[in-house]
Amino acid sequence: MSRSRKRLSVEKNDVVHLAWRASSWGIISIIVFSIFLNLLRFVTPLYIIHVFDRVPASRSVETLVLLTMMALLAIITGVALDVVRKRMLGLWGKWIEEQFGQFFVYRGLSEKSVSQPRSVQELLDELYRLRSFIARSAVRWIDVIWAPLFVWGVYLISPLLGSITLAAMFLVIALGLLQESATREPRRASRKAAAEAGDIVLNAERKYETISAFSMASNISTRWRQTTAAHLHERERAEARYTFYRLTMRGLGECLRIGLIGVGVWLFLQGSLTLGAVFAARILGGYGYRYVERAVGSWRSLKDGMAAYRSLKAQLEIDHDNSVSIHSATSSSALVIDQLSFRYPGQTSYVLRRLSLTLNPGELLVITGGAGSGKTTLSRLAVGLLEPRYGQVRLGDVEVRRLPPDVQMRMIGYLPQHTELFRGTVRENIACMGDADFDNIVRAAKLASIHEVLVGLPQGYDTLIGEETITLSGSEQKRIALARAIYRRPRLLVLDEPAANLDRRSRNAMEAAVSELKAAGSSIIVTQATKSSRWNAMADKFLILGGRTAELSVAPSKGSPKVSELRRVK
Ligand SMILES: Nc1ncnc2c1ncn2[C@@H]1O[C@H](COP(=O)(O)OP(=O)(O)OP(=O)(O)O)[C@@H](O)[C@H]1O
């Protein structure tokens, strides 16, 4: 098992290498197509030289027709190669997004840490930027490699014209660099203001009830206008500078073309160039300049694409799989909280300090404490959502955070303080948005006393929730969340303030479900802000959390006190 796990992690680190290997034939084809395509670009200048300089001398219509046919064929072939090449790049980008999109969503969502450095959306945005660079701009950077070849072509025709073309290219590169530095700051400021304005609307939309109840729409819209005004101002500043440099580059291109013709005709008048050579030089110089101008114009896309590639590559190379092998005894072992200390990142005071206790299978622990005493924090630590600063939370000898995801899903049930249901059917919600045996789902719903409510919905268990048309009451939603927490009959069930906002019937249902699971051998943790005699009657152990000082006292509720389990900690 451990050997196979090792192999898996090696493969994971190899993902980038494998992706390059899988893409190698596509890349080679794109390079070969580019070579042919750019060689075919020389056909038009050669055609002009022959048609202007040779055909009039020979007066051969056959030669003219033949040359024209060959030139047309070359142009059509070039267009076909260009279309195929761009399509291949588009498909390559799509392939990358398909291959890695789900992987990043999975990784982002399965990170068990409050200090998770990257949001899923950030990773997906980077993947999108990489795809967008490959599909749209990469072709410009492939082509710009050929620009020196075109300058060399002009140089062969006339060193003077070659030097003019080269000078224009350096000028356009300089203009590109100036454009980049002149627009960097306003772009950054505009992006920041746009994100803030977007957040204001998104945040307000989620809290529309409060907004309506307090008639806050006018204040919120004023805040949005102020923030968005900054964004519009900065964007306009960036766009004005961008437009100035783009138009200057375009104008420089026109000047180059006119310059090549003007100087070329002067050389013709001097007798050192033919007219065909002048026009051929103008076309070759035009290609070279356009390649550089287009590449300079997509400089930002290259930078974004490269940054996205480096960042995604680094993500792929981190082996996030810290799960360990488990043995069969783990499923029947006690929950052990061993010298557990925790403080949130960036905070100086500890929420919990050196807490130790053991919860055997079939035991119920009731945690009581005032607001902010750490009940939710301890619940999250118990299910492995948070990483202890010191100490461990274990099932037997395996740290809960290190349980493999499939085992964790099977062995741990969690009812958070705030009910979170997902957009989907009731059935999917109970089955954690996966596929599950319907009998088990119904059994869990019955145990949570929500079955009758669910069969009364328009499409029963297949009713979509999270839609505006179906609104379940808070306690109904909580009972669905309870059904989700218990439908796998977890080994450890953690209920964070389960009785809050519940009516008597729902509370009875909750207690009955807990009592059944307890009898079946689950270890159960229930938190409560105020003492409830009903939970107390069922409890085997108590833990009383004592406010921000993290002073703890543990008292067994049944039988004689188990002193070995008591820890009084400062
Ligand atoms: N993500 C977080 N970052 C920093 N501090 C936090 C975070 N979550 C909670 N805290 C702090 O940790 C302490 C314990 O919070 P916790 O939510 O665990 O308490 P609680 O007992 O569940 O409170 P309540 O009964 O009000 O829900 C509080 O002081 C809280 O401000």
TrEMBL record:
Segments passing through the bilayer: 20-43, 63-84, 138-155, 161-178, 251-269
Record has Nucleotide-binding as a keyword: yes
InterPro entries, sorted: AAA+_ATPase (IPR003593), ABC1_TM_dom (IPR011527), ABC1_TM_sf (IPR036640), ABC_transporter-like_ATP-bd (IPR003439), P-loop_NTPase (IPR027417), Type_1_exporter (IPR039421)
Location within or outside the cell: Cell membrane
Domain of life: Bacteria
GO molecular function: ATP binding
Occurrences of domain ABC transmembrane type-1 (ranges): 30-304
Domain ABC transporter span(s) in chain numbering: 335-565
Record organism: Microvirga arsenatis
Protein name as it appears in the record: ATP-binding cassette domain-containing protein
Lineage: Bacteria, Pseudomonadati, Pseudomonadota, Alphaproteobacteria, Hyphomicrobiales
